[in-house]
Design goal:
Elements: H1 2-47, H2 59-71, H3 84-96, H4 100-126, H5 128-139, H6 142-148, H7 154-173, H8 177-191, H9 200-212, H10 216-242, H11 252-259, H12 275-284, H13 287-299, H14 301-316, H15 327-333, H16 345-358, H17 366-380, H18 386-412, H19 416-433, H20 435-446, E1 451-455, E2 458-462, E3 473-476, E4 481-488, E5 497-506, E6 511-517, E7 521-526, E8 536-542, E9 550-560, E10 564-569, E11 577-581, E12 584-587, E13 592-593, E14 595-600
Antiparallel strand pairs: 1-2, 2-14, 3-10, 4-9, 4-11, 5-8, 5-10, 5-14, 6-7, 6-9, 10-13, 11-12
Amino acid sequence: MKQKRKKVLNKPKKASKPLKKEWIFVVFFLFLGTAFRIIHLQSIEKNDPTFYNLPYGTDMVTYDNYAKNILQGKHPVPFFYNPLYPYFLSIIYLFFGPDLYIARLIQMIIGVLTLFFIFLVGDRVFGRKAAIISLGLASFYDMFILHESLLLLETLAGFLNIISLFFLLKIEKEPCFKNIFLSGLFLGLSTISRANILLFLPFIFLWMIFVLKKKAILSFSLLSLFTLLFISPVTIANYCASGKFLLVSGNGPINLWVGNNERADGTYAQPPFSPKLEKRIKEIGDKALIEDVIRFIKEKPKMFINLTIRKFFLFWGAFEIANNMNYEQMKSWSSIMKLPFFIGFGTIGPLALFGIFLSLRKRECLLLNLYILSFTISTIIFSIMARHKIVFLPSLIIFSSFSILWFYEKILKMDYKKILLLFPVFLFSFLLVWNKEVYSSFFPFIHPEGIHIQEKGYTIIKDASNDWRGGNAVIFSDKEAIKKEIIITEDLSLYKEAEIGFKYCLDEFPGILTIKINDSFSLPLRLGMSTQGLVKGFGFSIPIKSLKKGKNSIILSVDGKSHFGLLYDTTYTFKRSYEFKDNNFRKIKQGEFMLWLLLKQHKEKNAITQVK
């Protein structure tokens, strides 16, 4: 008996040495992640002009104002936005005042805690080695750091989601009251932070049936009860304020409509309401938006399917669709983010998809696989932005680490046959994530005349996509100009009106922007105030007679002290965009200006779509 006891006591001592070495890596990566965040925060405080003056018209201003109003006893009920984040901010303001530096710092602390939970979940699913790789990848993931310095809900929602997954995974081996309660708590908090996590609940039930069997119904009933319990204060507040049942927030119908209508492009760009829809909204409220989505699906199923496919590719694409910020500009303000060793979705995406494929038969990965599936569906239903990916990226990083470990072990064992056998799967994953880059390289040869979108009543002609990469703009000022050529193949006699639109940014100095078309029409426009680092859209009418079939030349020039920035997109290159250099117009090497032409077949006084 004594000898057996000695053997049992000796086991932890033998295991402690490798554990200590592994935890050194954990501490190192957490320290590194913390250091990156501190350096980034110090840099943007010094260089970002919007650090203490939030850019007008963004969600950051909305959340900031909501938090201040809450402290004054003005609760925004019924809630239009998911309410947890404004209340989270208000608690920070209560203790520290409306200090944007402290608010960002606390979010970065949450970011470091998210890194730690990525490690814990990775350890539980794939083991310690994969967990350390996950932590390392997450420490160098640029979008985590960028978003933690913004007053947006995604950092908080991502943190709550990874904690929810951690406690749900614990239920498999320990289906006790404590783990179910904590899972319900964090799922409930996550729901009132970002409501699309609710779609994950039926998938959790499927997972519980598989892993818990007879205990599944009771466990899921308790989980649902606790989740609803922590959502209920919001639902009750909504009902008391409006007399209507509203589970979390009221922005669902408008978000659904923005992502699913005739002029939707898959991103969050809201076109103006038609007069008919506007009238219907006044009659029955937001129900009219849901009706219009149903009408769109019934009347134009092919367009709806194509739009859904486009959103799927945008969701899994390497390109980060900006909203409320300019990622490249933010990086330029940060001394640490300029360094080349940070990674993005273009690295994580293919590895994650390959890791998901490798893990399909692994029981311990089932919950994460179902989570990714539910999150993909719940996002594609609406519209795609880079902000949305932040919430579920921790789980993708865990699968990426599994892929890296798999490749490492196969190379170590010299099992090259297995690598070659599964290489097509990895290649498919790579092409899916980099789909836009691959397709766009061939597009100018297939469609040399550019992008011509034919819709009922109008035609849009442009050479650029809607996916601005950030940081790409030609800045010109007094006596400087740019030129854009647009190819018209349509019969202009069929059109009665024309509009020009473009995406731009502007500094604080006013001036005059002059537009010249084919040397036959000239229009001076007075520039407004600064766009505060944001991208804005502008449109104006031009005479249809100023255009001609074939190549049309459009020149924009500035008089005065204004620094006007015309954006260009690097997706396609037709060699039809020029900037004025050395007293001559020279072609931009890569990309095209985000300037488009709208031709109308009938007289309507609707303004061109305002682009966010």
